[in-house]
Amino acid sequence: MVWDPVSTSQTKSLTGLLHELVEDYPSLNSSSKNTATLLKAVVHRINTSLDEDTFMPLYTADLIAKHIEARSFLHRQIWHSIKLYKNILRFSGLLSDSKLRSLALDSLLNRYIMLGFQCSGTDNSLRRIKAVTDVLPSQWLKSAVGDTVIPELENLCRYMKSCAAAYHSAGNRDDLKTLLKIFVNIHAHNHAKWMSDEYSLRMPK
């Protein structure tokens, strides 16, 4: 399969075509043999990209602080992975939710992206957090039980809480408020309540 999962333009074209085919020809649903074969090829190509094209360096905070080349490389790899993550999520409605969650959250977010976030500390953190959370399918977030976020996002929530501590130490109330809103948006209400109490913030409506 010649499609490159990291290419946004190619992924938009492919998912757009698949959505059109499914809408125009209802018989071409995921249960049909031809469609199942195509989607199996899509999953295989994504897995290949995860195994062969995705890499996150393990740098110490001291190395990142002292060497701009290491810092720049780490940031490039983080955004490369986020770009792939976004493209995988473009298959929402085409691949099953369980398969999509496995690819985007288990195999990419928690395996690579969170590693990059943790290595880079809180530098440019809010922009990266929003890049990850803004594209999450709403049906996944609504499937959360009670006030807790879906399990695959707990690592991200722990990172967000460490960012909150850094923002508080720096006296950055605006970023604290934005982070609180993100917690609410991803249905992490238990973490949002903790943050509201810890930093005396009003819960967003």
Which helices and strands, and how do they pair?
Layout lengths: L7 H17 L8 H20 L8 H6 L1 H22 L7 H24 L4 H9 L4 H5 L11 H16 L3 H13 L3 H10 L7
Helix pairs in contact: 4-5, 8-9, 9-10
Features:
0% strand, mainly alpha, 205 residues, 2 domains, globular
User: What is the overall shape?
Assistant: globular
Q: What is the oligomeric state here?
A: single chain
Order of helices and strands: HHHHHHHHHH
> What does the average pLDDT come to?
93
Number of domains in the coordinates?
2
Query: Strand pairing plus helix content: what structural class?
Result: mainly alpha
Largest sheet: none
Helix content range: 55-70%
Low-confidence stretches: none
Number of E strands: 0
Q: How much β-strand is present in the residues?
A: under 5%
Please compute the radius of gyration using only Cα atoms: 19 Å
Description:
There is one protein chain. The protein folds into two domains: 1-121; 125-200, no CATH class. Helix content is 69%, strand content 0%. With 205 residues, it is mostly helical. Helix 4 (68-89) runs antiparallel to helix 5 (97-120) and helix 9 (173-185) packs antiparallel against helix 10. The model has no long low-confidence stretch (mean pLDDT 93). The protein is built from ten helices and no strands.
